[in-house]
Amino acid sequence: MAVEEKWRGWASKEQRGAEEAGEKEPCVLLGQQLGEAGRFAYAALCGISLAWLFPEEGESAFRTEFIKGFVKWLGLPDAVLPAMTAFASGLGGEGTETFAQILLKDPIVKEKPLVITQDLLAFSLKDGYYDARARVLICHIMWLLRTPLEELEVLEESLLESLKEQKEEESETAEASRKKKERRKKLKRYLLIGLATVGGGTVIGLTGGLAAPLVAAGAATIIGSAGAAALGSTAGIAVMASLFGAAGAGLTGYKMKKRVGAIEEFEFLPLTEGKQLHITIAITGWLCTGKYGSFTAPWSSLLHSSEQYCLAWESKYLMELGNALDSLLNGFVNMMAQEALKFTVLSGIVTALTWPASLLTVANVIDNPWGVCLHRSAEVGKHLAHILLSRQQGRRPVTLIGFSLGARVIYFCLQEMAQEKDSEGIIEDVVFLGAPVEGESKYWKAITKVVSGRIINGFCRGDWLLRFVYRTSSVKINVAGLQPVDLDDRRMVNMDLSSVVNGHLDYMKQMDTILRAVGVKTKECRLEEKGSTGLFSPPAEKSQQGAGSEAQEEQNLLQEGD
């Protein structure tokens, strides 16, 4: 009861603050404040976007349930449901720009461009979980309305930081920090007052810092069926644990209790100390003595999410492989041989006869550890799949990034997930860098079932080392790390990294440059870029372009006002 009273007192204080500031108190859902035409266009835009993003037959139930709940959420009459269902089934795509323009002209959207993002986020979280497909939809709608995706991250962070009592440490200049705080305060007012006072939906509870002992830290209801009255309830705490994983510890709480098959080591190491509504898992491809002797070393610049993990797996074997690679390149192959190999590979005439005899004589140095790690990476990938399917990470979108054998771990993880039920809505984006896996499109089709956002294949045509380890194959193998994956799917994005990757070892040594090249957020680009689309790439259809110039203008004015 003490916690509940604290919430009521805090909410009343915020409401008084809003009234004193002359702001209209949002006693109804943000989306329901729109005019009738605006709400119809809003729902239609979501329906059409769902059909474009997830047209597969297996996603039919998701599209139908989403749009049915959304029509009710917006307070639209039941009579419009057949039309919205038709939009969600693939009809009316040519009306995208028209609906976007109608929505942008709504007075509420003109005044507060972020209202749509806020409303969609609230709807997506109302049942206590954050489906990756819902986040991809939010990003898509934001693109159509020309709202910077950065704003979604700010909204998500505001939800998590809403009840923190400790003073925020200054990590930026005093002026930038002040503006950021003012912006978050404004967002809190929209989210916490507007959303906590409405009915419908299950409780979402958040602790101040979302650390392990949730109950001890005390929960605070953000969105509830009876508003603030549900704060601290058993249901609220249960949903909180569901959203953020067992006891709020997330993936760091997982330890492999016993050996699983051939796997000897499997553990998640934190790369950041924050908590977020979406998480990133990075997977290293090999280790070597010195600077890159740890799993976390290659990812020092990664900042795609406030909550990031690195998978530690089979370090003994990865270290053997890394040292073998190092010995092969530094000890046995001189500069002239490397240049000859690059020329040969780029010429596309590699055969068993074209490899230098000096290299073939020491091939066993790499062949043995490479073969062992190929097998173990597949097993680790399958194990990772079942960890994610069990929602150890909570019910939040996950982005997977890996290079070399780490990318292979991801490949087998996704293949395993695709064979299981209820595997959709977990994975948002995946990034493969120099992946030593089959590159034929037919093997990648299954992956689209479990990835909601983008499947990025970063490859280097001149990676002679990757080509060398496949030289003994009895049949021609198209390796994904060497060429594009020709998959006709809006998720598939091939990126030629030949201009930044000179060889396979560069995937570790040039990681910062590579991450930026493929659109993954790093610490440096977080400071430099604003409004970037990141991994989310806009659709190519002409009908979906050109909308939203007014929203961008309003957004700029809002930011200037901050």
Automatic annotation (TrEMBL):
Cited InterPro entries:
AB_hydrolase_fold, DUF726
Question: Where is it located?
Answer: Membrane
State the SUPFAM superfamilies in the record. Answer: alpha/beta-Hydrolases (SSF53474)
Keywords of the record, alphabetical order, are: Coiled coil, Membrane, Transmembrane, Transmembrane helix
| Transmembrane region(s) | 190-216, 222-249
One Gene Ontology CC term in the entry: membrane
**Family statement drawn from the similarity comment of this UniProt entry:** Belongs to the TMCO4 family.
Could you tell me what this protein is called?
TMCO4 protein
Species this protein is from: Turnix velox
